[in-house]
Specification:
Structural class: alpha/beta
Helix content: 55-70%
Oligomer: single chain
Strand order of the largest sheet: 7-6-5-8-9-10
Order of helices and strands: EHHEEHEHHHHEHEHEHEHEEHHHHH
Number of strands: 10
Distance between the termini: 14 Å
Shape: elongated
Radius of gyration: 29 Å
Strand content: 5-15%
Amino acid sequence: MSLVVVGLNHQTSPLELRERLVFSEKALPQALLRLHKELGGAGVVILSTCNRVEAYANSPSDTSELAEGIRRFLSAWHGIEETAFNDMLYEHDDDNAAGHLFRVAASLDSLVVGETQILGQVHDAYLLAKSEQTTDKIINALFQRAFSVAKEVRTKTGVGAGKVSVSSVAVDLATSIFMELEGKTVLVIGSGDMGELTLQSLVAHGAARVLVANRSQEHARVLAEARGGEPMGLSDLRHHLHRADIVISSTASPEFILEPKDFQEALKRRGQAPVCVIDIAVPRDINPDVGLLDNVYLYNVDDLKRVVAQNLEARRKAVEEGLAIVERGMGQFGDWLRSLVAEPAIRSMAGELEAIRSREVEKTLSALPELTEKQREEIDRLSKRLVNNILQRPMSGLKREIAHHDPKTVLHLVKRLFGLEDSR
């Protein structure tokens, strides 16, 4: 079996490329099914967030074939030549693929190390793939192990201490502009988790008024009421933009929802008072040319790195402890993965012994016609228990040897000892 992950993230590629390769929530089910089919029925999961796009796959194919298939799929699905992103993709296989996912799920590979949202995103990506029936035994075990490792990192280290969310970083940015947030008006565009968390953090730091704009008036109303704010539809956004000191945008729109002309008009009505705009959507919601305007301070997810670097330094020891946990989990998963090589030989051994058991029991029962049906069943059960007990230790030993030695050498010896030269 070959396990591989191919992807890119905030460390290897710019926002401009990630937003071209992102999978919308609506498109993901179809994308999963297509990738599953194009890889010959391989087990697959696609993880697509604002900071990363990754495809995990497992099949009997060679890892290089799997990786190449994923690259072709990304190119064809998004209509982008492979040359535009190939140099920015990373590729990991087998143990290293597992280790990568463990780091991602444990938030050790996040833009904001220690943030909690990524684990939920990994979990959702896995559940979607499972519901679309694109996972397999290896993929299921990989993701279950990732959740376990992430939980251990979270509970046994201080990696989650301090400011560990995009929302907290957004507050730092807004504070750097306004010095203090008391009396400021916050406009949240989109009512998703990211926007809600950022709004919550800003209000906790003194923001006085809240405006919530969403395509769904009902969603806007629910979020606004929770913060004592004012809801509105996206169609009303431009009429109220001038009221906002801080704008947070996080929608799933495939196109810009605000342009420079919208802010130019808003600035006139504000008397050129400064505006902090935090666009944490991928693809972006705000035309980047907005950042060229005087008195508009526009930040996107990649602009958060400066603040993030300070937070990471404060948790360096916790990160090292988390990586040690990941390393142990990676070794355990790798041992299990290699032990699967023994399964065909184990099945052959079990088949050979079962044939012998069945044949000998049949001879014995034929020689004892006076036995009752209950006695015959008891003899059959006894023989099965004996065979299972005999097999248990060799099976465990075989898996252990394969995990720590060359599988081909171990299997060759076992096949010769048990007369299984033809087993596959």
